[in-house]
Amino acid sequence: MHSYARVYMDSTLFFVLGILGFSLATENFHWGYHGDSGPFYWEQHFKGCAGKSQSPIDIPREDAEYAEHLGFIQFNGYSDLRVHTLKNNGHSLQVDVSGDSFIEGGGLEGLYKVSQFHFHWGRRSDRGSEHTFDGTAFPMEMHIVHYKTEYGSINEALNKSDGLAVLGFMFKVTPFGSVFFFEKFLKKLADVKYSGESTHTSPMRLADMLPIPWQNLQYFRYNGSLTTPPCNEVAIWTVFTRSIFISELQLQQFRKLYANEKSSKSFERISDNFRPVQPLNNRRILRNF
Ligand SMILES: *[C@@H]1O[C@H](CO)[C@@H](O)[C@H](O)[C@H]1NC(C)=O
Ligand SMILES: *[C@@H]1O[C@H](CO)[C@@H](O)[C@H](O)[C@H]1NC(C)=O
Ligand SMILES: [Zn+2]
């Protein structure tokens, strides 16, 4: 009886909202990665997520076309020592980057400025990355998000087809991981255990997060989207072949973060926060090697 009544009320609510021609239901939808807030439902609330050039994708390594014009990505200001803001946004661990760091070259037209980086990971190490290589997933993937400086701000860039340049790095589990990189913020994760919390990192260089060596990196290139709602098709993707190292112990620290605010009544860990791969739909995948 009880559950019948609830279903009835929910459908009445949707009916009323439908009559108003007003999508309050969409505004109340809190997207996530599990159950009926998960990736398969995003497109019902965010039209963009049903687009034809979505990310992530599976990259068939042998089928990517070599493109001589691409060359290497140049990292500028990545060696400057700076303090950044670390935050738990309920979907991921995100680091908002302060100061000016840019990428150029690598077939990109113009200069792209760093805005933030964040991570996608699995509850277990047999999954977690968003992109896959020949169907194989990695335990974690980092995205460094840059916007085209010409557009002035990330919000403007989110509406331009070449607005963002996102760099994707895969992680590989090794016994000691990447001590240098993770020391800078793993210790801080206790300060951002709950959604909405933020803190500052120790002074760090963006370059220290990159695979070693970080010059002349090989990568795949394709045109795609944000991998989270509203899934804007505005991202030029660069997915690198060389992995960053991480240990199981370091991965465990990420898996302890909560998707809920501290004042919540129930808690869920942020886990398996990756979108499944999307259809390629005849897009080209290039490589610089
Ligand atoms: C930019 O915004 C306009 C108006 O909302 C929309 O029609 C257009 O598709 C958007 N462009 C991109 C690349 O998202
Ligand atoms: C991405 O889109 C732009 C603009 O349409 C196009 O010039 C470029 O060749 C595309 N890149 C790839 C890898 O398909
Ligand atoms: Zn991402």
Q: Could you explain how this protein is built, in words?
A:
The chain has helices at residues 2-20, 24-28, 39-45, 154-157, 179-186, 248-255; strands spanning 58-59, 65-66, 73-76, 81-82, 85-88, 93-96, 102-105, 112-121, 132-133, 140-148, 164-173, 198-200, 204-205, 219-224, 235-240, 244-246, 286-287. The protein has 289 residues and is of the alpha+beta class. It has a single domain (7-287), classed as Alpha carbonic anhydrase (Carbonic Anhydrase II, Roll), CATH 3.10.200. Strands 2, 3, 5, 6, 7, 8, 10, 11, 12, 14, 15, 16 and 17 form a 13-stranded mixed sheet that branches. A two-stranded parallel sheet has the order 1-9. Strand 5 (85-88) and strand 6 (93-96) form a beta hairpin. It is globular, with a radius of gyration of 20 Å. Bound molecules: 2-acetamido-2-deoxy-beta-D-glucopyranose (2 copies) and zinc ion. Residues 118, 120, 143, 227 line the site of zinc ion. It is an enzyme of class 4 (lyase). Its EC number is 4.2.1.1. It is found in: Secreted.
Furnish the topology, listing elements before pairings.
Layout: H1 2-20, H2 24-28, H3 39-45, E1 58-59, E2 65-66, E3 73-76, E4 81-82, E5 85-88, E6 93-96, E7 102-105, E8 112-121, E9 132-133, E10 140-148, H4 154-157, E11 164-173, H5 179-186, E12 198-200, E13 204-205, E14 219-224, E15 235-240, E16 244-246, H6 248-255, E17 286-287
Parallel strand pairs: 1-9, 2-17, 11-15, 11-16
Antiparallel strand pairs: 3-7, 4-13, 5-6, 5-12, 6-8, 7-8, 8-10, 10-11, 14-15, 14-17
